[in-house]
Amino acid sequence: MSQSPPSARPRIAVALFGPPGQGSFNEAGLLGAERARTAGHDVTPFWIEPSDEASRTAGLEQLCARGFDLVIAHGGQGDVPVASVLQRFAHQRFAITQGSLEHPQVARYEVLQGQSAFLAGVLAALLSRTGVVAHFSGERVRPGLKGRAAFAHGLQAGLPGTRLLTQFCGHQHRPALAARCAHAMADGGADVLFAMIDGGRTGVTAACRARGVAQIGNVLDWVERDPEVFVASAIADSGEAIVRAAEDAARGRLALGGLRRFGLEEPALVRLALRADVPAPVRACLEGWRQRLLDGHVRPRDDYGGDEWPAPADALDEEPAAA
Fold first, then answer.
1. How far apart are CA 135 and CA 169, in angstroms?
2. Average pLDDT rounded to a whole number, residues 120-147
3. What spatial distance separates the first Cα and last Cα of the chain, rounded to whole Å?
4. How confident is the model at residue 211 (pLDDT cuts 50, 70, 90)?
5. What are phi and psi of 95, to 5 degrees?
6. Res. 313: pLDDT tops 90
7. Can you give the pLDDT at residue 20?
8. CB count, 10 Å around CB of 75?
């Protein structure tokens, strides 16, 4: 949907769901907002800390009331609150990164985490000595579910019959809860764990370090940060989605009602980063699968129909704590 160029720089708010200073996904979003501002766009990030939908909706409503030309909701957590806010602010323009809400006033931007998650699944299957691999995440939002499905698909592509332990604990930012869940997965035999988590990652990492479990990160390059624990990272720079939404808004070409996607064809945004000791035959296998993804011969699945571990019974009552 084409638009005429704006007469002035659009004022853009970026909503980050969660506490400041935590989480790979939100860190990527904040870095994206900073890059957009450095490029000359009028971008201001805002943190919406509570995790309940009513509070997230109220936070977005406050941004709309301040008259921003565009509100960017970072992450699939924005789908439900944006839909609610549009009932009151029908003319507000939104962009959602990694979301699935289809609406005439919403432009969607997606960095294809599923492609790097698929490759992470192949790698996990090839590296596991026990034949048991874990996937762990927090909130059951659509991007997380799609990432899990892609990982499970890659796991079976890498080595059919590999057992998957998968769990959504319900919280993105609780390290103590995340550590407890990661220990339980290690007890179940998992020796490789793919964690799609934000503020809770410190707990996962502490558990993996204690149990000798190889962790695969996501969004950012966790191998570079902690190569002792991380054997790989399924990079998907969601912050770049914010940059491109800001650029489109500034140029009067925000694709309201549409979707823009970015994948392995841009390796700066989407790739599987590997630790230096990953064997050459494994790298060669991964390269073969990467080419199949690029050629379109393989498409990561969006849905997972296998077994799932339930969230801990007391997860809703557990208070945030340091790992």
1. 11
2. 96
3. 47
4. very high
5. -125, 140
6. no
7. 86
8. 28
d(CA 129, CA 134): 13
Distance, CA of 94 to CA of 73 (rounded, Å): 7
Tracing tokens 């770049």 back to the chain, one arrives at 240
**In the chain, beta strands by DSSP E:** 11-17, 42-48, 70-74, 94-97, 106-111, 132-137, 163-168, 192-196, 214-219, 230-236, 259-262, 270-274
Q: What are the residues whose beta carbons fall under 8 Å from the beta carbon of 161, sequence distance 6 or more?
A: 131
Residue spans per domain, the chain? 11-112+238-262, 114-236+270-310
Token readout for 101 is 């809400």
Joined tokens for residue 51: 């995790």
- Rounded percentage of the chain residues whose pLDDT exceeds 90: 86
Contact yes or no for 227/83 (Cβ under 8 A): no
Question: How far apart are alpha carbons 273 and 24 in whole angstroms?
Answer: 15
| Closest residue by Cα to residue 70 from 253, 199, 210 | 253
DSSP string, 221-235: -HHHH-TTTEEEEEE
Do domains 11-112+238-262 and 114-236+270-310 share one topology? The answer is: yes
Provide the 10 A C-beta neighbour count for residue 204: 26
Closest alpha carbon to 283 in 272, 299, 296, 268: 272
| 19 or 232, greater pLDDT | 232
Chain centroid offset of residue 67 CA: 28
What number does CATH give the domain 114-236+270-310?
3.40.50.2300
CATH number for the region 11-112+238-262 comes to: 3.40.50.2300
- In whole angstroms, give the CA distance from residue 74 to residue 99: 8
Task: List Cβ neighbours of 282 (8 Å cut-off, separation of 6 or more).
Answer: 123, 126, 127
Q: At what angle do helices 113-127 and 142-158 cross, to 10 degrees?
A: 40
Sequence-ordered list of residues with C-beta below 8 angstroms from that of 277, at least 6 positions apart, any chain: none
* Range 6-11 average pLDDT: 76
| pLDDT at site 310 | 83
Q: Whole-prediction pTM value?
A: 0.88
